[in-house]
Design a protein that fits this description.
Structural class: mainly alpha
Largest sheet: 2 strands, antiparallel
Order of helices and strands: HHHHHHEEHHHHHHHHH
Low-confidence stretches: none
Number of strands: 2
Strand content: under 5%
Length: 352
């Protein structure tokens, strides 16, 4: 690992340590242990099974986003690639999961790794839009705590910012659909000054891959299908959270799960060590303890129990498919190189 990558991995590890320190700071561990011992493990197993089943929904949605690239990609190939990607995020540094997922699919289906990565860039956009929308639903729900604050601001103010962010995202999408090449050239010129070298080139490659993936959103039928499966997946994911609440005696509603889902999604976007340790738990603490007033013991028992329960199945499934494909961890770690080569091959005008 180069010194530059080593620093990035070290920074992620530091973030994890600091967040875990914040999460457990001032907590009565005796209360946490009591909650863990008193948990309903049948319900926890159900919640974990539901969480794992959510990867089937991700696999179904991915077919929609891949349609402009290749019609009728195989379910098994997509499912294998999805699990390899999440396994990579759980075990390897530097968040190579999306690259690994695209590369794995290119080994199983006649699609380019760059094209598959473009579909994942669009998937990330749809995820952001869906999670923000569900968060606004939670804030508007009648059981949302009055006067709740996040980061020193009222949640109403935060929701206002979220609405603004949704508008900005949709505005950027509109610009990308109308003037794609012109916008790429503008971004390329800006990044050449602000972020010269490999970092800027990688950002432009990602934007180009995203634009290639946007083909699916230009079709009204594919766009509606993609949105349907996005809301279905995230709604199911929140239902799994809610079942997990019941396992630890947390009486919060399904709307609380919608809100916590958003907090966790924002938190895990922060660079950290593999497996989202610290970031996931911080998102849960902000939502349950900070906003909904759930006890610290129940909050931490749920955070660590649910996270560990969800971590194991997808990691094992991903390892199994990695073995079946004959992939090495070194190959997965360098999957970003193959993706970048594919994007530059498709857009030679961007090559240095």
């Amino acid at each position: 690992m180069s010194m530059k990558l080593g620093w990035r991995a070290g920074f992620g590890f530091l973030v994890t340590v600091l967040l875990l320190w914040w999460v457990v700071g001032g907590v009565d561990f005796g209360a946490v242990v009591r909650e863990v011992r008193g948990a309903d493990y049948g319900l926890l197993a159900l919640a974990v099974a539901m969480n794992t089943a959510g990867f089937l929904l991700r696999t179904i949605r991915w077919r929609v986003l891949l349609e402009p690239l290749r019609r009728g990609t195989g379910f098994r190939a997509r499912f294998a690639a999805v699990n390899i990607g999440f396994m990579a995020n759980n075990l390897l540094p530097l968040r190579v999961g999306e690259f690994a997922r695209a590369y794995a699919l290119s080994r199983l289906e006649p699609v380019s790794a760059g094209g598959a990565f473009g579909s994942l860039a669009v998937e990330r956009f749809l995820d952001t839009l869906t999670v923000l929308t569900l968060m606004l639903v939670a804030v508007a729900a009648p059981d949302f705590p009055e006067g709740a604050r996040v980061g020193g601001r009222t949640v109403g103010a935060v929701a206002g910012w979220m609405v603004g962010l949704v508008v900005v995202i949709l505005g950027c999408l509109l610009l990308l659909l109308i003037w794609p090449k012109r916008l790429v050239r503008f971004v390329e010129r800006v990044l050449a000054r602000l972020l010269p070298g490999e970092g800027g080139r990688r950002a432009v490659d990602t934007l180009e891959a995203f634009l290639d993936g946007l083909t699916s959103l230009r079709s009204p039928s594919l766009l509606l299908l993609a949105l349907f499966w996005s809301f279905t997946f995230w709604g199911w994911n929140c239902f799994a959270f809610w079942v997990g609440f019941q396992a630890f005696g947390i009486g919060a509603s399904y709307f609380a799960a919608l809100f916590m889902n958003a907090m966790v999604a924002f938190a895990v976007a922060v660079p950290s060590s593999p497996g989202f340790f610290g970031t996931f738990h911080a998102g849960v603490k902000v939502a349950l303890l900070g906003v909904y007033g759930v006890g610290a013991g129940e909050t931490l028992a749920f955070a660590f129990g649910y996270h560990l329960g969800g971590f194991v199945p997808v990691t094992l499934i991903g390892l199994y498919y990695t073995w079946r494909l004959g992939l090495s961890f070194r190959e997965i770690e360098r999957s970003d190189v193959q993706v970048e080569r594919d994007v530059e091959r498709a857009h030679p005008e961007l090559s240095p």
